[in-house]
DNA sequence: ACAGGGTGTTAGAGCGCTCTAACGATCGTT
DNA sequence: AACGATCGTTAGAGCGCTCTAACACCCTGT
């Protein structure tokens, strides 16, 4: 920095002002400083900058599982807004709750202005204790805790979209393969399914098969459904992977999708878009979720808001070729 | 830190030594310092630490595409080694070459000790200029440049494995849907296919259909293959996604896999493992690639090596149910 | 010609840590 | 008992930046 200042014939402080985009610098000085900096290959040191400045322009993002492209799209949304606002992101990868906590610690050592946690495994109490006073937004898991905001998908609404779509096609016996007891949003989806079925007067036909979030869970659930006598005409699966598992078993039993059984997934993952699968599914606007999460975090960082908020994003239904009217 | 020192009745410098895991601290002092630190919720400031110390223990990782789970597994490998060696990772997400360069800049502002670039889009010349003297390892793209090491998959070997497997089953007319002209490794795979076919005396039967790396590319290539009269008895696709596209078209034409046509993919992606797909495919040991990349970077950081190296990882074949002997 | 309000620039004191060099204490050795 | 060697500890000078407060400078209006 000293060198740049000398090269441009100005003081160190002015160089600093230029790199902070201060409006109080004349165009001529700015241009000269930038030119000399470029020529000398000078690049500000984020460490020193972070140390000296009180307001960090860095936000930490903890991704639960890098393997799940679901999170990638949320990160896209966060990035889009961060880029626009001049914030830098520090990405961390959890993967197992023990590691998650240590990665959280690492991010915190960089003193971020705030934290976005994508579906964290760690209990919110532990997180709250770790982060101290740093603002936190949790995405994908409802957390009721002062000082933590939340962005979640309206799972019940998503389930209702699926059920109503199937009912509209004429299905009455619609089964649900649930995401199990622990999966994020699984319970809410199952509950939403139940509510929607009753609201349509199909409460008597409702049937929840316990499952999980893996393909194998779908396979096992489907096997159980087919073993139980007359199969339903439609199945709403807890997510796309489960739906694919169900689809495989139906195929093995000579049941066509959607000819014999209609199938709806959840997540609108890349898998659902595969030509061979082409699954009707509930789409969560992930990009929007990411943007909202960061926007929400910034409100708190700027001290514009103090009470915790819970944003519930409304999902949409993507109709593909795995659903049709039931066989007459 | 001052407070911790006071609380433990020692000097600031000793607290620093404790947090740097120095062996020159008595167990008694260490225990007391750690206890007081924990009690006060003290956490070292990575900024200040990075500023003051010359040898950063931070490594930057630039991920080309967060949506591609392929990279996630490489990151897993990097993380495993980094954790073991006490290095922290700074993850960045490219996504489009313009953004990639700016993200690279952001990471560099944190003055990492080294950089791992996963399949960067940016030309190596530009990268070299940006990073200055920071050691770099490029994964997934062969780069010949002093100061940059490379970890790549042995694409030619992978292609040979696929072809030999099919030939061993009795196939002779084996077509290849290539990954196009621009895709990473596409040309090497196509060349490897050609070499393997000739080596097996099947040079006359070799047939490369131009494609790409998307499902749609597979669909189009398959359509072209089927339009050209007698179809081959086996198809080796540039990657799994392409294979799935091919599979869909074969299915549409009433051709069974592997009954009528055997199919081999490349990457051993999650898609290949889907029950319904169950694709024979070439597996790149991604975890190992990540570990090797970091190990290689550390050699250079430590100054143990100066000349550039190129590590070529040997892939393996994962046989599933998309390949079988041709119909007699 | 001079006050008054910008505008553009600067000196200098930290930010929280690491690291060098040096120190006092304890030990085994002669 | 005196000696150097080793161990545990400490003071104090930076690391490269930001930021406050003050300062020079150039207008404009009277």
Which labels suit this protein?
homodimer; 328 residues; alpha/beta; 434 Repressor (Amino-terminal Domain); Rossmann fold; 3 domains; 6-stranded parallel beta sheet; 13 helices; 12 strands; 45% helix; DNA-binding
Gist?
Two copies of one chain form a homodimer. The first copy, chain A, is 45% helix and 16% strand. Chain A has 328 residues and is α/β, with parallel strands linked by helices.
What is this structure's SSE topology?
Two copies of one chain form a homodimer.
Chain A: H1 2-8, H2 12-19, H3 27-40, H4 46-52, E1 58-63, H5 69-85, E2 88-93, H6 97-109, E3 114-118, H7 124-131, E4 136-139, E5 148-153, H8 155-168, E6 174-177, H9 186-199, E7 207-209, H10 215-227, E8 234-237, H11 240-252, E9 262-266, H12 270-273, E10 280-283, H13 286-301, E11 310-313, E12 316-318
Parallel strand pairs in A: 1-2, 1-3, 3-4, 4-5, 5-11, 6-7, 6-8, 8-9, 9-10
Antiparallel strand pairs in A: 10-12
Helix pairs in contact in A: 1-2, 1-3, 2-3, 5-13, 8-9, 10-11
The first copy, chain A, binds a DNA duplex (30 and 30 nucleotides) through helix 2 and helix 4.
């Amino acid at each position: 920095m000293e060198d740049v200042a000398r090269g441009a014939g100005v003081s160190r402080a002015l160089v600093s002002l230029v790199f902070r985009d201060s409006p109080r610098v004349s165009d001529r000085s700015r241009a000269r400083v930038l030119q000399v900096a470029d020529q000398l290959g000078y690049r500000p040191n984020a460490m020193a900058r972070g140390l000296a400045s009180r307001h960090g322009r860095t936000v930490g993002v903890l991704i639960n599982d890098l393997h799940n492209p679901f999170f990638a799209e949320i990160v896209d949304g966060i990035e889009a807004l961060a880029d626009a606002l001049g914030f830098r992101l520090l990405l961390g990868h959890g993967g197992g709750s023990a590691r998650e906590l240590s990665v959280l610690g690492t991010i915190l050592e960089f003193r971020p202005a705030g934290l976005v946690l994508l579906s964290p495994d760690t209990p919110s109490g532990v997180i709250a204790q770790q982060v101290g006073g740093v603002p936190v937004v949790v995405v994908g898991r409802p957390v009721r805790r002062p000082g933590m905001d939340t962005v979640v998908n309206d799972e019940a609404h998503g389930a209702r979209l699926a059920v109503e779509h199937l009912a509209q096609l004429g299905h009455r016996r619609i089964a649900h393969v649930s995401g199990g007891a622990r999966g994020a949003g699984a319970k809410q989806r199952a509950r939403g399914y139940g509510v929607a079925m009753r609201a349509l007067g199909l409460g008597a036909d409702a049937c929840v098969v316990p499952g999980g979030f893996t393909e194998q869970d779908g396979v096992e659930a489907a096997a159980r459904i087919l073993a139980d006598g007359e199969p339903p005409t439609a199945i709403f699966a807890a997510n796309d992977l489960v739906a694919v598992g169900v689809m495989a078993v139906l195929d093995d039993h000579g049941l066509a999708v959607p000819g014999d059984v209609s199938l709806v997934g959840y997540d609108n993952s890349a898998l659902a878009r595969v030509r061979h699968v082409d699954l009707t599914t509930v789409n969560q606007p992930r990009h929007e979720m990411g943007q909202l999460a960061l926007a929400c975090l910034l409100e708190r960082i700027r001290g514009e808001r103090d009470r915790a908020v819970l944003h519930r994003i409304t999902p949409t239904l993507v109709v593909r070729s795995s659903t049709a009217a039931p066989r007459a």
